[in-house]
C-alpha cells in the first residue's frame, strides 16, 4: 500500500457516522445503557424501552449499537418487523450474524411483534445465554406482566418509557436537518415532541406551511394559524397515521378513532353514545383504543397523543365534513346533557364541552390547548391558597392578591384550580357568587360596579345570582373549562361578569366567541385594569346559549364571533323572534304585510328603516345559506317557497324536486337556520360582503 493511499470507509461506517452526527437528545437513556454496557452491572441484564410509534425507539437502538461497536463490544440486532414470530426464525436471524455467545449486546426492535416469542425469550432463550449479555428490547408496549411477577426476572429487568422530546431537543433536531430558524418554533409546536413528526415536517417542501406565529399563553410561538399544523399536507397526515397505526383499522375502529380525536377524554359510555353501538361493542372498541401505543389511559378516560389527535382530526375533516359535523353534534350534545345534570363529574363534562370548541379558528389562535386534555379541575382547598394568591399577585398585582385573600375568607367555594398530570396547579379561577343588595362582601370596586350595572338594567330577583369571575390566572384553556362548568351548573345563575384583560390572545377573544357582551374598562385596586364581559342568562339560558355556540363553532367563521357591546340586548325573546322570522318570510312579497312585522323594531333594520330594508335582510340571509355547501338546499327551499313568486307548498316541493314530506322537513329546518342567522345579524351585524 502506498503512503498516500487513503482507506475508504464502507457505506455502513458512513451511515453510522451520519446517524451519530444527526442524533439528538435521549442523553439520560444513553447514559443508562452505556453504564450497563461498560460498568459492573448489579443484576440488570434486560432493558425494555417502550413508547408510541415514532417516538424514536429505533433511532436510539441504532445509536446504542453504534456505541457498543465503538467500545469494541459485539452487538447483535433482531428487528421483528422482518422476522417471523417463531423461536426458530428468531434464532436463525441471530445465527446469520455470527455466534451468539460472542455477543455482548442483544438488541430487539419492534418488541410488540414478538407475540409468542416473548415468553420463549424469557423462559427458554435468555436463561441459557451467558451472564455478560445485555438485552435491550424496544417496543410500543411495556413488557408483559410475567416479566414483573416472575421472581427470576423482576430484579434484572428495567422498564423505561420513552416520551417525546422537549422543545429544546426538538429545535436542535430541526436545526441539524437544516430547518430555518423562522420555521423552527412553529414546527416544534406542530410536532408535539414526536421525533418522527419532526423528521417528516423538516422536509423543505412542508416548511412553508408553518409561518412564525404569535405568542401563546406561555410566551412561545403559537405556530400555524388554524386547528392543527397538519392541514396543508394530506400526504403527511396519511404517512403519520400509517406509521402510528401500523395496521388498517376496521370501519368501527375508524369511527372510534374519530371520537378519540374530537373528545377531550374518551370513555366507553361516550363511544356508545357517539357511535350508537351496544355496550359490548363500545367495550370492545375502547379495549382496542386502549391497546394503541399513542393512547394513554387516565383516571377520566382515554387520551391520545396530541399529534395523533391532530392527525386524526385533520383526516376526519378532510375526508368527511358531514361526518365530522354529525359526530361533533353528538359529542357536543352528550357533554351539554351530562354537565347540566350537575353530578360530581360536572368538571369533566364542562371541560369536555369547552375542549370541543378548540377547533374554531379563533379558539385555536387565542389559546394554547396543549395538555388541556390532561388537566383536572377541582375546588381549591386551604393547602392551595398560598399558590393561588401568588398567581394572582404575579398576574394582577399585590393589591389584587390582598383582595383575593379577603374573598377567600368570605367565600372559599369561589376558588377553583386546575392541575396538570403531575398534580401541579397550572391555573385558577376566582368566581364569587353575588346576590342583589349584597353588602357583607369585600370592598371590591369591580364587584360593586357589577351589582350596580345589573340593578340599573334588570335587577336580580330572589334566588338569582350574579357570577363574578374576578381573577383568572395561568392556563386559559383551564379557565374556559372552569367557566363553562360554572355557567352550566351555578345555582340560580342570572348574570355573569367575567373579568379579563385586553389582547388578541387569551380569554378576551374566547369570550367574544362565546357571544358575551363587552362592557367598558374599569379599574380595581392600585389601578388594576379590568375588561369585563357580561352575559344575561335569563334571556339566554345555558341550553340555548350552547346551541347557538355549537352553530358558531361549526360555521368556523371569524365574522360569526364578534361580540356586541354592552347595552345591545336583543329586543325580542328568541321564541318570539323565531316566530316573527317565519311570518316575515311568508310576507316577503307583500310590502304592506311586511310593514307590520315586529322585526322592524329590532336591529335588523336601521332606526326608521322600512319593509324594503327588512326584505333585503331576509334575501341576504337566503343568499348566505345558499353560499354554504352543506346548507345550499335549505337556501333553495326558502328561495323557491317565499322569494321567487307565490305558489303552494305542493308546487314548491315539486319545483325543489323533493317529496312533500321531505320538503316540509327541509322548510322547517331552513326557517330555523334562517332565524339563527338573522339573530346573529341582529347581535353582531350583517356578514361582510
UniProtKB/TrEMBL annotation:
In terms of superkingdom, the source organism counts as Bacteria
Q: Which SUPFAM superfamilies match?
A: P-loop containing nucleoside triphosphate hydrolases
Protein name listed in UniProt: ATP-binding protein
The organism is: Streptomyces tardus
